[in-house]
Amino acid sequence: MQHTQALKDFCRQVDFVDDPFLYIKESIGNGTLSKADLEQLICDNRNLLDAGTVKQCVDEGLMDAEALVDGGIDRNFLDRLGTIPEDVLPQSGRIESIPGPTTEVYFWGIPSSGKTCALGTILAAARGGTVARSMRVEDCQGSLYQMKLSQIFKRENFYCTLPGRTPVDTNFAIRTVIEDFGRKDHPVTLIDMAGELFCSILWKKHGLEDNIKDNHLKALEEFEKMLVTNKSDNPKYHFFIIEYGEGEKKYKGFDQDTYLEYGIRFLSEKGVLSDAKNGLFVIVTKTDLVRRDISEDEDPNQYLLGFLNERYPNFFALLQQYCERNGICGGNFPPPIPFDIGEVCFKNYCQVKTERANEVVRLLLSPPKPQQKKRRWHF
Fold first, then answer.
1. What is the pTM of this model?
2. Cα–Cα distance between 196 and 185 in angstroms, integer?
3. What is the pLDDT of residues 14-42, one digit of tens each?
């Protein structure tokens, strides 16, 4: 029992140390952890360590790659050890406005919430031939961004190295035309907003000058021009991205619920949400982990709803309020959309799966429904 508790303590601590490899080496050296223990922990939770740390451990003989394969880890992930993540995102050009006719689709969230990976998977789904006949990208501000992102999330079952964090002031608008199976064109512009935009809203409001840099102010200025000063009459979707299981994680002193609450209040004050008639939706990333946290007979949809209402009460209360006030989604905020990008291993690698992303593409191709409340997403 003490040994089991020691391993649990190790798993908790390894996320917070400055040098996980050194911590592992010391733990094995002092007998707190054995090589077999480490291999079993990795097989039980393949995202316990990042790829760089796993490679160091394999190279130094602290774990054996074949033991990981025998423990159920896909050899394709181990073969990628040592690959360097490509800096996929170019510096953003300025977005002054979104020309029509098009449906504008906004993705909001805090840094590391999974926005970029979700968007990459949605692009793969739109061109994959399962839920749409084809997708073409028109010449636009986000063309290079889309091309580089699509090189990572190429297709279903593709093994990729996930992109790193995006620059603070990175905003991209990808103008696409999605063709459905009835050969009807749907002009859709996918807009990936800077992750730290919501953070800078809170920092600026409360005078946290140490956190605010020139690029934060630039992102806020660009937001004002695109969605307030030069606001279009195009139909709009707004997707808010939440990372499952990270409700307690803080970014520069504040958790996701606090940033999301301030962000959505700001959007409402600026009049951004009043004409979001196509809908407000929440995408919860990493929901493949929900099955790990519930019993076999537990309803994952009900669990996820309860989890989010408990961890993000202010944010969800505001969403419901804005839907009622503006007649969005028939006045009822729809259930959150469970989402994952596929099988992630060593935090940096992924076998792309588009099943979840297909649901988002279907949503974009269908006309808005007056009532979304009863919609049930399938795990």
1. 0.88
2. 34
3. 888 999 999 999 999 998 899 999 999 99
